Amino acid sequence: MILRLAWRNIWRNPRRTWLTAAAIAFCSTLLIFSITLQLGGYDMMIDNALRTYTGHLQVQREGYQEKPRMRTDIPHAEGLAARIHEATGAAASVRAQGFALASSKDRSYGVLVVGVQPRHEPEVSTLPGTVHQGRFFRDTRAQEALIGTVLARNLKVGVGDELTLLGNGRDGSVAATVLTVAGLFDSGSTDLDRGMMEMPLGTFQEVFSMEGGAHAIVLRAASLDSAPALADRIKTLLPPDGRVQVLEWDRLMPGLKQLIQADKLNGWFIYGALVLVVTLSITNTFLMAVLERTREFGILLALGMSSLRIGQLVMLESLLLILVGLSIGLLAGGLVTAYFAHYGFTYPGMEEIAAQFNFPTHVYPQVSAVAILLGPSAILVFTLAAALYPALRIRHLQPVEAMSRI
């Protein structure tokens, strides 16, 4: 009977009920779309950063990530990469890297030199797709180099010019060679464009005396979500001596993880402020509804109904009103999220930037039960807590005093 009475009471003033429900529904819809889009944006940010160069996973010698050294290499890395690709189907490319002095006719700069497999590198990195002058490598033993636009400007070289490379080999010998600039890339990252040079893996191994070794096997998973399962599978394929390990993206790029955590904190603060504003406005509505029914509550108290029972009635009315708004918000928010999850969401100018740096052109919201229900759940908890104040005021009502109010 109390449920039927509470349902009838919230519709005694339909305009106020619909306005309150609309406020809850709008806040719920906004939170659902914003949270799912934000989480989807994080996935896209991580995926783009990993696809540029790092890869979803890397197989490295233990200790190399913390302290990169030429001698901390993986023996017969190409054979291990082939076995991983055959067993898992994941794209895999072998890399070796070291530091050297790159010199042109006019200038010299210290650079990170990375040896890559011309055939497999485009499968794990978008960097080959950002070559806008010249071309990517065609032969694993070609005497060629691929450099960033900023480094090319600093060295005053272009496609077809020669660079002299001078460094230290794995065995302590002098690593020196002359390379022809095959192409210039523009990754969008100043650090990469200014401080990195790529060369074919075979040439790198010969110049730096690597003897078939390499420093990393870069792997690209089908999606970011499938990377942990792929890492578990790869662990079973590694040598049992434990000297080679699999690193996931959060260890490869800890700075990106910290950046996302900081942005999440900022986002939760904004969402919390939005929920608080809506809660305060709804609290005012609940309070006004209780105050204008003071005479009614006094009559009920005089007839023997306990203040606890009346408080339960008011809380049930509040709950039903909140559920009406949340139901509308969940439906609207779910439809909006489903639409953009299918067609994607893009910002003005995003397509031009994505085309320039070989990135996806659309952001897709992260559709999950947690992402969809997080916002409405917060609204439910806060608004119910806010409804306690009007309900607790009934405990202090005196029947005679309450009935005398107009």
Structure description:
- This protein is α+β, with helices and mostly antiparallel strands and 406 residues long.
- The chain has two domains: 2-50 and 256-403, no CATH class; 57-220, no CATH class.
- Helix content is 54%, strand content 17%.
- The chain has helices spanning 2-10, 14-54, 77-88, 121-124, 149-155, 190-195, 201-207, 227-235, 249-252, 254-291, 294-302, 307-343, 350-357, 369-393, 399-403, and strands at 57-61, 91-103, 108-116, 131-134, 144-148, 162-168, 174-185, 196-200, 216-220, 244-248.
- It has a six-stranded mixed beta barrel with strand order 2-3-8-5-7-6.
- Helix 2 crosses helix 12 (307-343) and helix 2 (14-54) runs antiparallel to helix 14 (369-393).
- The two termini are 27 Å apart.
Main traits of this protein?
6-stranded mixed β-barrel, 17% strand, elongated
Short description:
This protein has 406 residues and is of the alpha+beta class. The protein has 2 domains: 197 residues, no CATH class; 164 residues, no CATH class.
Task: Tell me the structural class.
Answer: alpha+beta
In the sheet with the most strands, the strands line up as: 2-3-8-5-7-6
- Approximate helicity band: 40-55%
Strand segment tally: 10
Helical region count?
15
Measured distance between first and last alpha carbons: 27 Å
- Shape call: elongated
Query: Could you tell me the mean pLDDT?
Result: 86
Overall number of structural domains = 2
Strand content: 15-25%
Low-confidence stretches: none
Main beta-sheet annotation: 6 strands, mixed, barrel
Radius of gyration (Å):
32 Å
What is the string of helix and strand elements?
HHEHEEHEEHEEHEHEHEHHHHHHH
